[in-house]
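Per-residue structure
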Amino acid sequence: MSSVLDTNALVFDTFEDSQLHETARSKLNSLERWYIPSIVFHEYIWFMKAEEIELDFTRRKLSEYLVNAKTHYCPIESTDILFASREMGDYGQYNDFLIVSVSRRLDQPLLTFDNDLRKACKRLEVKTIG
């Protein structure tokens, strides 16, 4: 099974003291392929910056995710931008809908731990796991 990854899957996988660490790690390990949209890497860096995580640690984790044999890097396309701009209810949802659009475009389920995003996916008939 393959899946598009939401940023929170990487964040929970990264931090062993997070409540969902074991679940995220298990789900990531069970997948054959990780489709990671480019915006997920940006959000991951912004999260690490906001949490004041050591830069060398962030660099190391980014590298681990990027070069992992399971990773397929997915650039955001113009159709994703148009989809996100149509679907977002406010500016704060833009990045989430970029990720949902990649999931739709690739016809892959979305691994997310965000309940609001899961509801949006259900409305849009995008499968989720997590």
The CA atoms of residues 34 and 71 lie 5 Å apart. The domain at 2-129 is CATH 3.40.50.1010 (Rossmann fold). The first strand starts at residue 2 and ends at 5. The first helix runs from residue 7 to 14.
